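From: lab user (bench 3)
To: helpdesk
Subject: output format question, protein + S-adenosylmethionine

Hello, I'm new to running complex predictions and I'm not sure whether the block I got back is the full result or only part of it. Here's what I submitted:
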Amino acid sequence: MNWFSKALIFKVLSTVPGGAALYRHAQWKWTKSIVATPNWVGQKVDVGMSYLNWLLEHGYSLEKIRTMRHLDLGTGWHPTIPLLFSRIGLRDQVLADVNPLMTGDTFLDALAITNGLLGDESHPARKYLLDTSIPEKPPESELDKLLTRYEMAYHAPYFEWAATTGQQIDFVTCTQVLMHLERPILDGCFKLVHGILKPGGLFMVPVHLFDIYSNSDPHISVYNHLRYSRRFWKSVVSSDMMTFNRLKSPDYRSALEGAGFEIIEFHVDYGTEAELQALRSLEIHPEFLSKYTNKELSEKHLFFVARKP
Ligand SMILES: C[S@@+](CC[C@H](N)C(=O)[O-])C[C@H]1O[C@@H](n2cnc3c(N)ncnc32)[C@H](O)[C@@H]1O
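Helpdesk reply: Thanks, we reran it on our side. This is the complete output you should expect:
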């Protein structure tokens, strides 16, 4: 779909009462963009494995990880990463989102597909599972009961919980959420995460830096967003339903430092040769040229791990 039409649809739906609910209905029934599939859930299992592998490679034993209190921030519809961690043996997980998107059905969809993938004897997660036998389907379908069975709490929205919980969390994962947060909200989010982590606690984040509209519009470059002014983007493209912040790695770095984090991993991926070629022929808006170096403009993904001192 043309990216600009898509942004305008979000803009119009944001102003209509019930527009967000209408869009979610369309995502389930028509575009099916949020229906759990083995491919989609499998990608999230891989992200979960990348968090686990990072911890194992940085001195955390499996036994230690099993005792850690995990917060998954911005869980969305499918709690795939918490379900993977549950099979690994984590017994105290908190799931949080600004929107209460998860339901009993979406939980069960993610559970069935995750368990199906982990049933494959060659899956790299198998050696870390507490029990490799095929789990039985839970008898309940209500979200509250499922969360209790899998030793998870769900807060959506989560601001009240975060304000009163204290320094309780050992590590926070936040998968492809932050590119939807404008800078002041991002700063507030980082301070909130810093506030609920125990001293020494970790904040682990993969975030896209490329134009997320290019996922659904094959006619635009992954750097298309660099063509537009801040004013145009704010007034015409962004809406309450869909924000893409267009931030680059230096912005995330300064937000982390401003919140008091110590950065211990900060890995940036760049475009392919063909994408960089497309970037060279793009008319980049002067606001971007004055703010970032050419190398920063070519960033596509960021993975960081930050520690609360
Ligand atoms: C692209 S989805 C990612 C969902 C999930 N983490 C995944 O990887 O499938 C973005 C999620 O971030 C949530 N979100 C947006 N702003 C947020 C905020 N300030 N704090 C926490 N979650 C937020 C949205 O409600 C949505 O569930």
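A quick orientation on your result: The CA atoms of residues 171 and 202 lie 5 Å apart. Let us know if anything else is unclear.
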